[in-house]
Amino acid sequence: MSTIEEKIKKELIQRFGDAYKAFGLSKLMGHIIALLLFSPEPLSLDEITKQLGRSKGPISQIVRRLRDKHLIRKAWMPNDNRKDYYEVEPEIFEHAFRNNLELIKNNTRIAKQLKEKIKSSKSENLKPISQRMIEMEKFYLLMEDYYNDFLLSWAKERSKLFS
Amino acid sequence: MSTIEEKIKKELIQRFGDAYKAFGLSKLMGHIIALLLFSPEPLSLDEITKQLGRSKGPISQIVRRLRDKHLIRKAWMPNDNRKDYYEVEPEIFEHAFRNNLELIKNNTRIAKQLKEKIKSSKSENLKPISQRMIEMEKFYLLMEDYYNDFLLSWAKERSKLFS
DNA sequence: TTTATCGTTTGAAATATTTCAAACGAAGAT
DNA sequence: ATCTTCGTTTGAAATATTTCAAACGATAAA
């Protein structure tokens, strides 16, 4: 690999690590995603391990979590029946977005549940916070709408991109 | 405070702590926000300290960060010139959302910058990742649009709510 | 069947983060 | 002017998280 390519790879790994951390995820997650994005071919656990200079333990665990989040998937490799090979999901950004949507839905849930509990408590003192919970629920419900609209819109945009 | 009110306060604090952590922020941040949301009156640092059972150090630091993020603000208290009193920003949810928008913008920036670097490297090997960066930039640019539309829409919805 | 290699699990070590207690400077109260 | 009390800062202690190395079970290769 040329020096310039090497440099770009390093920067990609670095920036994705920071970005993932900023979203409250493991930095190593970002590193693995970046590495797989960069690689034209799927990579085995050993290759990821070697390229990132980490040991097998954490790589194995984080790869599982990335799979659970639908950000990467196993790739079938005809030449090698032993190792598992991984690649990024084709719709990785959409999946990342959907994971975020789950957090939003959780906020909606919190607001709704607290709102109900306050209501059934019939306490006058809780009037202000009740008002806040109503506002919060409305906010995140509207947000869910926009998230869903975005997904529809992106599906169109993306299909244009790949035609 | 009645038992039921106490219980609701505790639950609010608990859930907000978890939610903040899920977004990659400090759990204590969520606790303070919940406490201030719950309280009809602004609270002093000492009161926050006492109610959350923590010492002054971390409370002071986190309160500063919350202020930087525009999630809380100082409230003027005519009876007490000594202490600082805090309350949640009236538009706290919108501000939290804007903080998130900054993360999105950062993702757009990453994609754009890497895209440019790959382009100027003129490397054929980097074609696939270049394609990915183009897709990524489009994705997050579209997302920015939706975020901005949402803000406009929420402004309307909120003004309806408070009329 | 035996051997070798894979991915996972696990307990310990290293690291990062959170929390506290004490010290400090600033500013209102006396 | 002196005394309190406030919020902040800071270094150490406690806690949480990340990371590693070794052991293990499973499965392909010999």
Number of helices of chain A: 6
Span between termini of chain A = 30 Å
What is the H/E string of chain A?
Answer: HHEHHEEHH
Rounded to an integer in angstroms, the radius of gyration calculated over CA atoms of chain A is: 21 Å
Portion in helices of chain A: over 70%
Describe this structure in words.
The structure is a homodimer of 163-residue chains. Chain A has 163 residues and is mainly α. Chain A folds into two domains: 86 residues, Arc Repressor Mutant, subunit A (Orthogonal Bundle), CATH 1.10.10; 70 residues. Helices cover 72% and strands 6% of the residues of chain A. Chain A has six helices and three strands. In chain A, strands 1-3-2 form a three-stranded antiparallel β-sheet. In chain A, helix 1 packs antiparallel against helix 2 and helix 5 packs antiparallel against helix 6. The longest helix of chain A is centred in the last third of the chain and has 35 residues. The first copy, chain A, is elongated. The first copy, chain A, binds a DNA duplex (30 and 30 nucleotides) through helix 4.
